[in-house]
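Protocol step 4 of 6.
Sequence for IPIL1 protein (Piaya cayana) entered exactly as in the expression construct, tag removed. Do not edit the line below.
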Amino acid sequence: VVEELVDALQEVFRCDFSNSTVPMLEPAIGVGSTFEGWSLCHDDAVYQILLPLKAPRVHVFHLEMGAARQMPAEDPCIRVELECTCTGQQREENSLCLFHHSLKEMTENQDPSFLHSFCTGVYLDVQKTASWFQTFVMSAWTKLWFSSYNSMKILPCSRSCKLQVSNNRSATLFIEFIFGVQHGDSDIFLSSQAPEDTVTPNTRWPVSFAVAELKFFRHVARQAPTNHVYLKCLRTLVHKLVGRSFSTHTIKTIVMHVLTSAGQSRWNMKRFEPWMQDIIGYLRCCLDKKRLDHFFIGNENMPEDIILPLEYRTAEPLNLFQHLKHDLDAHARAICELKE
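Step 5 output, structure tokens:
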């Protein structure tokens, strides 16, 4: 149902904006725990949909990744530039080209410019993008056959588009559309999604590894199609540990490292206890060393089908537990919580 709804919305989008100066939508990608197969609660599961954005005609997106040695970039932005599309003959005839005419001249006979509608200064604005898409969904909903049998409500959110879809049988779906711009042809995106406990400026698009994570778990599933015990372990540990000293990202990183170090020969192991012992043991070892390497930065054991930018593949491994070296109280709390 979710895939059908997303496809229907994208079809309406193509019809409504085929020749407009708005961000173009690439094929949607389902990401997060629901699509990875380990969602904590099926009834309240949130289906996260990444919508890759492409610059509209005569515009280009330039990803500004911040300091060259900073991995991942802390303050990445998406700069929008106009792209000249006119030929020499068009210049001679003084025909309209966005690049060579001022915004004032352009807006006399056309819609407000992309820079005005979607950007703050010359940078793509997350909140303006989310607000525009929410407005589109509201208008598109009545054109979908889903609207005859379901009600839809847009939930408050400034950096994404969250939908609550309910049918006559009181069944409810939660769908969150996240926006992203691809880093080259890699599986890394600059995403509208930001950590919940931080205040992120509207022009900041944090680096997202969601597609790379999805591809990793699908890679394991292809090699071990009848075994999902490791996902049960992941679900159990996220339920027990996240919210205190450990984040979901930390637990997923541990599980991905354990799967990689175990090797494909063990991926079909179906007993819960050995998997859980391996994962807990790996986490305990990382805490003792105060070191947990980021899975997608400087990792030489990456599956070949996961595409990373060169600078991520060749970078020095990033220690996610670096803060524990300087905060002994946090380190003690983490060890204590793991023992509980």
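Step 6, annotate. The two ends are 40 Å apart (CA to CA).
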